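Example 3.
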Amino acid sequence: MRIVFPLFDGFTALDLVGPYEILRMLPGAEIVLAGEGAGDAVRDGAGGLSLLATHARADVREADVLLVPGGPGARRDVDDPALLEWITAVHSTTRWTASVCTGALLLGAAGLLAGKTATTHWNAVRELESHGATYTPERVVAHPGDRLITGAGVSAGIDLAITLAARLASPAHAQAYQLALEYDPRPPYGAGSLATAPAEAKALLGVAEGSEA
Amino acid sequence: MRIVFPLFDGFTALDLVGPYEILRMLPGAEIVLAGEGAGDAVRDGAGGLSLLATHARADVREADVLLVPGGPGARRDVDDPALLEWITAVHSTTRWTASVCTGALLLGAAGLLAGKTATTHWNAVRELESHGATYTPERVVAHPGDRLITGAGVSAGIDLAITLAARLASPAHAQAYQLALEYDPRPPYGAGSLATAPAEAKALLGVAEGSEA
């Protein structure tokens, strides 16, 4: 089972590492981090860490699962035709093509989400809909017939990957992986969505009260 | 605000990257990934990815926050006196010293948890208690007077980091970071703890039904 993550400058690390920690446990999982060049150090959007690419994108033409992370680089790369063509080509070979956070903008820019419901980070709704998708404020949106699954912002990749593991292996496998990561979340606050975050927290992010996105 | 993560071969990536994505947003945050050598590529426990060390451990003597991840390498390195001495020395300078998952075993082996309550991954309870700590099945266990905070397995690092952000900045900052990561978890199953995971899932991990750890 070949799990491919594109690595681009400015990705959000948790968008990738959350799902990685679940999907790596799938039977026969092979992990591919596809950068411009094999061995490239690819810096995340916050600039605090770098992951090494295991493969060059040009050498990666097939995947069982293609998972596209978001980040500032995803917003930039909607204008990178080579990356979009690569996503489209690999998507044609997958069992599932997934995005986390603003990775959905890359699927959208590649034309894969036109006319479909999808989710993304709450601050990227208009950009997502500019690609012809309809934003749905759910944690995970799956279209099995189209082999497409999108997740909400950053931390939603863990929920998305458990959902995928249930479909690719079995619900018992997905539950085992959840237990292995002790994923029994206890957020200290109920501030994880625009609907629940207090005004003071939104103000710190520059979000006006009453804003939907 | 200097946030230091030791990087050792066989760390669990999500133990580090979950807290990283919260703590990097703290005002004035400087991120340090301290490996054997600066620029070293350090492979995770699953073997699927490598992070680059930003600094050599020998050059890192102070931290505002020291966060020790777990992983197979943490279990091995309880026998590495140089790493334990480094942890003890840096701990003497911190505002908070934290562990995620089996990172607690390194704090324990360094003698920091003797006589204290602490948490760790559910499969490391006996090892934790061998260092004189008392396992507490909570998501996060904080001892402000001792500047020590431990988190449960892997994914608990996100909850721990939000807890720390509230103490280091403010509850509003912590809530803003939670919103920025859209941390509004919706686990597809209630399988994230030994108490709630079904027998079939436990069996896949080799855990006998009725086992406490």
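The longest helix of chain A spans residues 156-168. Chain A has a mean pLDDT of 97.
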